[in-house]
Request: fold
Amino acid sequence: MIHNLSYRAFVYGTENEEKVREAICILLPTALPEKEVTEGYHKNQVIILQGKITKKREIKDFLKKLHSLKPSAKKRILRELENRMDERGNLFLRFDKQRAYLGDLKLVEHGDALHIKLKIAAYPARKEEALKVARQIFEE
Reply:
């Protein structure tokens, strides 16, 4: 159902990089994020932690976590599927970093989050087909 999963998180100067890494690993236990250091708008250091997961078992484990979301969160994703997916069948989700660190998955809209991109396996690879597959994932 999913080809791969990409993830990304920004670590700002006021945050602890290790705690952000732990939050990623709570969401994706096998994640080994690559680190990129860049400069923010105000010349402050920003660390980008990112990676990709392609192993089916690891993706399946992540899907189990999605299934454990509160029913209201799953309904919200289903309602917003159209807006959360691009034309190439990529589904975008954001989870609160602080809550993830505490083991609680909470969907958020703001950018200061754990960004997840799921490449939905749909044939042909069009948004309409990917939406059908994504609905199956969240309706189960």
Observations:
- The CA atoms of residues 38 and 46 lie 5 Å apart.
- The chain has one domain: 2-139.
- The domain at 2-139 is CATH 3.30.1440.10 (50s Ribosomal Protein L5; Chain: A,).
- The chain has a mean pLDDT of 93.
